[in-house]
Amino acid sequence: MIPTWIVEYASLLARGLQTTLLILLIASVFGFFLAVLVALARISRNKVIAKLSLFYTSVTRGTPLLIQIYIFYYGLGSLFAQFPLIRGSFLWPYLRDGYWYIVFALVVSVGAYVGEVIRGGLLAVPKGEMEAASAFGMTPRQALLRVRLPRALRLLLPTLAGETVMLLKSTALASTIAVIDLLGAANVVRAQTLQVYEPLLLVAGVYVCLTFLIEALFAFAERRGTPVRRSA
After folding, report:
1. Which family does the UniProt entry place this protein in (predicted)?
2. Distance between CA 220 and CA 194 in Å, rounded?
3. How many CB atoms lie within 10 A of CB 210?
4. Is 101 exposed, middle or buried (0-12, 13-18, 19+ CB in 10 A)?
5. Where are the domains of the chain?
6. What spatial distance separates the first Cα and last Cα of the chain, rounded to whole Å?
7. In angstroms, rounded to a whole number, what is the distance separating the alpha carbons of residues 232 and 132?
8. 67 within 8 A of 176, measured Cβ to Cβ
9. DSSP track, 167-196
10. Who's near 42: CB < 8 A, 6+ residues apart?
């Protein structure tokens, strides 16, 4: 029999799950594009660009994510509130909402961590493949987009799966800045029903299921990419 508190708070938990999935999706997409740019900057022959990207990844990976979230939410949030022009603009409803700060913090984090992963993948692509692309008349940009980057991403699929799972777990930090994600919804249930452990166990089970789903999707993508890898 389904516990009464699950039935009573099902809609709240469902909205929390939706929020968690949206944060995961937005941070994954924008974080990935940022990571590609960071990876390209890290291997750039321009020393200034390479040094700046190294500084960004070092600072981001060298500080706890929770501290970064607090800096963005309490630091930037308080700063924006001091400007009447910003408070009166159409951006204010977004700038005062913790949701967008957690998304921004996660995008920044993904850009740094996955950027280093992609950099390693780009450097692991055999030089002979790039020489072959050049022999076929491809420009360096075409070779990067058509050969080097796709090849690196196929090699990195297992690692990217792990990074995505880590990102999923990091979304739980949204509850620390009053965002009602899945864990935030569970905390509301705990406070209102005095059920201390049961909501947490339910949420833990949901995270485990989502982890299995993510791993299955990446495993499927890896299997689909295997014939391409063998023929390369």
Report:
1. Belongs to the binding-protein-dependent transport system permease family. HisMQ subfamily.
2. 42
3. 20
4. buried
5. 4-231
6. 54
7. 11
8. no
9. HHHHGGGGGGGT--SHHHHHHHHHHHH---
10. 50, 53, 54, 57, 115, 116, 119
Quickly name the fold that domain 4-231 has: MetI-like fold (1.10.3720)
Q: What gap in Å lies between CA 81 and CA 66, rounded to an integer?
A: 22
Q: Which two tokens stand for residue 139?
A: 């420009």
Distance CA 180, CA 109 (A): 21
Instruction: Give the residue carrying structure tokens 């063998």.
Output: 230
Give the pLDDT confidence of 172-216 residue by residue, as tens digits. 999 999 899 999 999 999 999 988 899 999 999 999 999 999 999
User: Distance (Å, rounded) from C-alpha 227 to C-alpha 51?
Assistant: 38
Torsion (CA) 67, 71, 74, 76 in degrees, nearest 10? -160
Query: pLDDT digits over 34-60, tens only?
Result: 999 999 999 999 999 999 999 999 999
Say if CB 115 and CB 39 are below 8 A apart.
yes
Tokens 């890898």 sit on residue: 229
Alpha helices in the chain (DSSP H): 4-8, 10-42, 47-62, 65-70, 77-81, 84-87, 92-95, 98-124, 127-135, 140-143, 149-170, 182-193, 198-231
